[in-house]
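Thread: quick sanity check before group meeting

JM: Hey all, I'm pulling together slides for Thursday and realized we never actually wrote out the predicted structure for the chain we discussed last week. Dropping the sequence here so it's in one place. If anyone has concerns about the input, flag it before I start.
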Amino acid sequence: MSRYRNLLVIWASILFTQIVFVAIVFLTRPALFSLEFTQPLLGDGARDSGLTSAMVAGFAAAAVTAVLFSFAFKRRLNERALESEDPSQVQTGLIIALALCEISSLFGLALAFAFDYQYFFLWIALGALGILLHFPRREHLLAFSFKGPARERSD
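JM (edit): ok, ran it. Output follows.
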């Protein structure tokens, strides 16, 4: 099933970007990997950069909201795909969901580069977890198999 393989390739490539993000931070800001857990989680550890606890809380709220919205968008587009009998909506739903999860990782990168925030990896971990939870399932596409094999071959 070529559609399912496409979903797997998209999912795997977005998951791989999470590893690339960590590698970029490691290569450009290796001091952030010293992991001094004595520093507060909410930003006082980056005193010189101007990062405040309100900013960290805002980044956290935005990241969690984006990951939660990813599940709602994917579910809605999967429902729309069944209603309109359009399996391409499943792929669209997956791409939007993965992009919303990746927003969390991008917030982590912003914290790492702009503020030298040592707990940036929590945002990347949240994004990676969301992406892992969006692993494409074959049954989302199998709902369209009742149309017969001729439709699948034409794709």
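AS: nice. Residues 148-155 have pLDDT under 50 and may be disordered. Residues 2-33+46-144 form one domain.
JM: adding both to the slides.
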